[in-house]
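[agent] plan:
  1. take the single chain provided in the ticket
  2. run structure prediction with default settings
  3. attach structure tokens to the ticket
  4. add a short note for the reviewer (M.T.)
[agent] executing step 1
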Amino acid sequence: MTLSEQASYMLRAGLVEPDWDALVVDAEDLRTSRAFTRYTTEEAVRNATIGRSLGRLAEKAGFRVEAVVATTPVFRDFAEADHTLGLGRNMRQAINAGYVAQDRGRR
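[agent] step 2 finished; step 3 output follows
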């Protein structure tokens, strides 16, 4: 491959990472929902806000960022959400860590 061919070669990549700080759970008990999110972002997930930083970090690393697109998945089925997000497991851990009162987290 000639130098001019190398210069015109472009690689495209997609970067995907959730921003756990944006996690919202539609629950009647808003205080418990917020405590659950706080536990998840402070204790359960390392670098919980890295998703919002991907564009900036990619540019800082020398990549050209063409677009940043944010999407919000909405789960209507608890079993599916639990499988994907570990809601039950994380709620038990949030209770054990004192973020959520046991009577509120077991509803």
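[agent] step 4 note for reviewer: The mean pLDDT is 88.
[agent] ticket updated
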